[in-house]
Amino acid sequence: MSEMNRDQIIVISEPKKRRRGLLWVAAGAAALLAGGSTFALWSASDTFSGGTITAGDLNIEQLEDTSFWDVSNDRKDATATVGATDGSQLGHQIDDVNAWRIAPGDKLAASFEATATLDGDNLVARVGIDGLDKLTNTITGMNYSYEVYYGDKLLVSETALPTSADAPLLYLSAPATGQASGSEDAKNGILGSTATAVTGTAAQSAVFGMPATTAELNVVIYASFYEDQNADFRYQDTDVTVTDRTDVSLADTLGDLTVSLSQVRDTGAQFN
Fold first, then answer.
1. Strand stretches in 120-225, DSSP E
2. Taken in order 177, 183, 186, 189, is the CA torsion positive or negative?
3. What is the 3-state secondary structure (H, E, C) of 47-81?
4. Distance linking the first and last C-alpha atoms of the chain
5. How far apart are CA 210 and CA 116, in angstroms?
6. What's the angle, vertex CA 93, arms to CA 131 and CA 219, rounded to 5?
7. Burial of 220 (0-12, 13-18, 19+ CB in 10 A)
8. In terms of C-beta density within 10 A (0-12 exposed, 13-18 middle, 19 or more buried), how is residue 158 classed?
């Protein structure tokens, strides 16, 4: 075979090798696509700042032990300020109320001092006396009334004690600070500044705003052994007293009375 023929064979075989190589590469690419590979499409994201949701608080705690006082207004020894009141109704403290005996014309005060806590937006609470339905009123001619003080500021001037077990003495609302665009729930001013005293049935719908998350309250319950005739809650000769001895040695029990604080959502300037 001549040299020319050998060259022709070489020239012809090289393109065949190249074509086989190209076919192998193409087959490999097809196998790669068949293996489940995906294409990325457009997407976008951004990060927004978060926040923490924190529960508030509602609480009432005894500040001082219950104290009892003889506040009979015709007694010369009624010279001390009752509890944390404003001193408008003076008395002398009774060491042992269980040993003290009430007589027609007398007036007894039971002082309950407590610290109330309200911490939360949209928080309104009822201040009440639990156990009124258990009050054993067995002594004929006994009448009950109450006052409420914030510090030495009078909130509820003396008014008849409600007989319903769930009747409020007044309402408190948490401070508006922190409510952002929320409005104040108080209807009767802020304790210690714009609050004005209320009396009678108006007290049972009054809502006082707390200046801070805690406030010291003094609830005073009075037991009067006479029927007041001129609405001044002070004994006078014109008031009605019991003259017979039918109920001698009987007892009324105040032992089950408890000052309570409970949240409501149907009272306050901003609630429907």
1. 124-130, 143-150, 153-160, 168-173, 207-209, 214-224
2. positive
3. CCCCCCCCCCEEEEEECCCCEEEECCCCCCCCCEE
4. 113
5. 10
6. 35
7. buried
8. buried
What are the residues whose beta carbons fall under 8 Å from the beta carbon of 205, sequence distance 6 or more? Answer: 168, 171, 267
Distance CA 210, CA 79 (A): 31
Please give the Cα distance from 158 to 145 (Å, whole number): 6
CA-to-CA distance for 187 and 221, rounded, in angstroms? 24
Total residue length of the chain: 272
**With a threshold of 0.70, does the pTM exceed it?**
yes
CA angle 268, 173, 170 (to 5 degrees): 75
Q: How far apart are CA 247 and CA 243, in angstroms?
A: 10
**One pLDDT digit (tens) per residue for the chain, 272 residues:** 444 444 544 444 455 554 444 444 444 545 544 555 667 899 999 999 988 887 889 999 999 988 999 999 999 999 999 999 998 989 999 999 989 999 999 999 999 999 999 998 889 999 998 876 666 667 888 899 999 999 889 999 999 988 777 789 999 999 887 666 678 899 999 998 899 999 988 999 999 999 999 999 999 999 999 999 999 999 999 999 998 887 787 777 666 678 899 999 999 999 98
**Calpha distance 260→207 (Å, rounded):** 16
Q: How far apart are CA 146 and CA 164, in angstroms?
A: 14
